[in-house]
Amino acid sequence: MDLPRHIAVIMDGNGRWAKKRFLPRMVGHRTGSENLKKLINDCDDIGLEHITFYAFSTENWKRSQEEVSNLMDLLREYLDDHIKNERDNNFRIDFIGDMSRLAPDIQTKMKYVRELYSTHRGIFVHIAINYGSRDEIRRAVCEITEEVKEGNLLPRDITEDTISSHLDTKAVPDPELLIRTSGEMRLSNFLMWQLAYSEFYFSDKLWPDFKIGDLLEAVKSYNSRDRRFGGRNEVK
Ligand code: FPP
User: Fold this and answer.
1) With 197 labelled, which of 6, 50, 141, 228 sits at a CA distance of 20 to 30 A?
2) Are strands 6-10 and 92-96 parallel, antiparallel or unpaired?
């Protein structure tokens, strides 16, 4: 099976997974976090190059204070687990989004984990935390404007590549495939620039139930599509 180089995933449906079982929402998030860990190692085993997961959006701060604080605690646990079990993991990991709004101890753990995993050779995992596409583009515009102001860049020399190279994903190829779970069909402010030509795949599975077999189904569907990038494919 031909694998795309990069898959992006919107993990949705933790709350509904818990509700169906009459469990607190947090149990859904916790099970979702365990699923994330397992899926990353399975994706490493199949030889995928890059995968990006949407874990916490710039809009997620609007959830109840209790849920936000529980999600932040879950993130702490997730990072601690990666520190403790570093030897069992072969993947590299980094984070996209605006880290500056996160608690200082979380920022420290994120930097530590990124450094600790930087010598690994496996799949490159990107986790989006306090990420929003519009915010990412806003931050890129601020940086570019500074360069213009300092006289290092002329406005007419700003190309699409200039913008791409100021996004959080600058070192990563654009995802060829986006997967969203739980039957929702929205982009929710995720990688809007980078997904301009990507194929979208929507799964009815709730995130805690989404396994490697489901991801391979998505890849199969992706492989059956005719990608034209706005052009026309000649009839063979
Ligand atoms: C969407 O489910 C999920 C989230 C907003 C959080 C995603 C988080 C995880 C998968 C686990 C945590 C990961 C880390 C790295 C700590 P939802 O709450 O919107 O579900 P619902 O739509 O069914 O209510």
Assistant:
1) 141
2) unpaired
Query: What pLDDT score does 226 carry?
Result: 77
> Rounded to whole angstroms, how far apart are CA atoms 146 and 173?
25
Please say whether the beta carbons of 190 and 20 come within 8 A: no
Spatial strand order in the sheet of 92-96: 92-96, 124-131, 50-57, 6-10, 177-180, 199-202
User: How far does the centroid of ligand 1 lie from the alpha carbon of residue 180, in Å?
Assistant: 12
Q: Which tens digits make up the pLDDT trace of 15-68?
A: 999 999 999 999 999 999 999 999 999 999 999 999 999 999 999 999 999 999
Inter-helix orientation angle 212-223/25-46, to 10°: 60
Question: Between 104-116 and 65-84, two packed helices, what is the crossing angle to 10 degrees?
Answer: 30
Over residues 168-197, the pLDDT tens digits come to 999 999 999 999 999 999 999 999 999 999
- 3-state DSSP assignment of residue 202: strand
Q: Is the pTM of this model over 0.90?
A: yes
Angle between helices 65-84 and 25-46 (to 10 degrees): 40
Q: Whose CA is nearest to atom 5 of ligand 1?
A: 56
- Between CA 58 and CA 29, with CA 113 as vertex, the angle to 5 degrees is 50
Nearest atom within ligand 1 for CA of residue 17: 23
Interval between CA 217 and ligand 1 midpoint (Å):
22
